[in-house]
């Protein structure tokens, strides 16, 4: 088949488009919300983006479009100062291509803070107050970054 | 003298606390099928959809619970749930307390939703031809 010089760039663009769309369709889809409401340790669908220092913050993660093979979820929590506070890693299989997971975070006051918290509720918790950043990656690929605020 | 010592201790605790910061703890949970669900049963022959809502308990793959229903009270009003789940393969039976209707479902279910087919195998004569597809969503 004779392909003229003008058609070659068109073919290259088409090939790149096909490859990129194939890669995009192969990656899992992710939906995330934060909540502090749970029943028997199972978070409820009451999303929020503001939490108190005493709350347990749940990140509820719905993954879809997963292949039946083994997968790895990484969740990195950065406090308002940018310090990495927690890094969760979970390996799982999703035979049906879908999986719901949740990660919870609790903030603890330093020992002896009770005395000062009588005067200042956020005593010893200053590092936690403000906007948190949470990154979600599956199989080493960053799928989403979410934020929530902690107010004491 | 004792008061001064106590004051020094209090000040020391305050200073240490002011200079220290809190800690965090974290953990992970995996969504199972236990919890509140709504199953929406659409008859393939048309007519009112049966909406079944209730809580499911998963005991090592054996499912139990109770449900309430809306949509077609002549055929199903609510009752007990029994069944099993193997991986994401679901088999459920809804048994009506009063009408004696039995609805059998099979399909797939994961932590957040599912779908499959259903049929009504026992109950009022006018309901016995009911069958179709179902979808489920978790509250």
Structural write-up:
The complex is a heterodimer of chains A (152) and B (139). Chain A is α+β, with helices and mostly antiparallel strands and 152 residues long. Chain A has two helices and ten strands; from the N terminus they run H-E-E-E-E-E-E-E-E-H-E-E. In chain A, the strands form three sheets. Chain A has a five-stranded mixed β-sheet with strand order 4-10-9-6-7, with no helix packed on it. About 5% of the residues of chain A have low confidence. Chain B is mostly beta strands. Helix content of chain B is 13%, strand content 57%. Chain B has one helix and nine strands. Chain B has an eight-stranded antiparallel barrel. In chain B, strand 5 and strand 6 form a beta hairpin. The longest helix of chain B has 18 residues. Chain B is elongated, with a radius of gyration of 26 Å. The N and C termini of chain B lie far apart (63 Å). Chains A and B meet through strand 3, strand 7, strand 8 and helix 2 of A and helix 1 and strand 1 of B. Strand 8 of chain A pairs antiparallel with strand 1 of chain B, so a sheet runs across the interface.
Report helical residue fraction of chain B.
10-25%
What does the main sheet of chain A amount to? 5 strands, mixed
Residue share in β-strands of chain B? over 45%
User: Distance between the terminal alpha carbons of chain B, to the nearest Å?
Assistant: 63 Å
Notable characteristics:
heterodimer; A: 152 residues; alpha+beta; elongated; B: 139 residues; 8-stranded antiparallel β-barrel; 1 helix; 9 strands
Quick take:
The complex is a heterodimer of chains A (152) and B (139). Chain A is 16% helix and 47% strand.
Compile the SSE list and pairings.
The complex is a heterodimer of chains A (152) and B (139).
Chain A: H1 7-26, E1 29-35, E2 38-39, E3 42-43, E4 50-52, E5 56-64, E6 70-78, E7 84-93, E8 99-108, H2 113-117, E9 130-138, E10 141-151
Parallel strand pairs in A: 4-10
Antiparallel strand pairs in A: 1-5, 2-3, 5-8, 6-7, 6-9, 9-10
Chain B: H1 2-19, E1 23-30, E2 35-43, E3 50-59, E4 62-70, E5 78-86, E6 89-96, E7 102-109, E8 113-122, E9 131-138
Antiparallel strand pairs in B: 2-3, 2-9, 3-4, 4-5, 5-6, 6-7, 7-8, 8-9
């Amino acid at each position: 088949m004779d392909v003229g010089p003008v058609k070659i760039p068109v073919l290259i663009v088409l090939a790149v488009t096909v490859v990129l769309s194939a890669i995009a369709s192969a990656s899992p889809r992710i939906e995330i919300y934060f909540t502090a409401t749970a029943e028997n340790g199972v978070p409820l669908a009451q999303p929020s983006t503001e939490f108190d220092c005493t709350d347990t913050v749940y990140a509820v993660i719905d993954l879809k479009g997963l292949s039946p093979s083994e997968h790895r979820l990484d969740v990195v929590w950065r406090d308002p100062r940018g310090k990495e506070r927690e890094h969760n890693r979970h390996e799982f299989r999703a035979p049906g291509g879908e999986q719901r997971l949740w990660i919870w975070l609790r903030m603890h006051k330093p020992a002896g803070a009770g005395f000062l918290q009588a005067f200042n509720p956020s005593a010893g918790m200053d590092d936690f107050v403000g906007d948190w950043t949470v990154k979600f990656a599956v199989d080493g690929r960053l799928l989403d970054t979410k934020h929530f605020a902690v107010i004491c | 003298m004792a008061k001064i010592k106590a004051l020094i201790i209090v000040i020391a605790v305050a200073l240490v606390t002011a200079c220290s910061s809190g800690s965090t703890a974290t953990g992970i949970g995996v969504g199972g099928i236990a919890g509140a669900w709504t199953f929406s049963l659409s008859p393939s022959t048309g007519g009112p959809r049966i909406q079944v809502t209730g809580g499911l308990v998963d005991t090592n793959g054996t499912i139990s619970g109770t449900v309430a229903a809306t949509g077609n009270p002549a055929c199903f009003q609510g009752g007990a749930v029994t069944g099993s789940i193997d991986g994401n393969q679901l088999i459920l039976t809804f048994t009506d307390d009063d009408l004696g209707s039995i609805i059998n479902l099979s399909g797939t279910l994961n932590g957040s939703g599912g779908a499959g087919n259903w049929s009504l195998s026992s109950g009022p004569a006018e309901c016995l031809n009911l069958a179709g597809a179902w979808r489920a969503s978790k509250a």
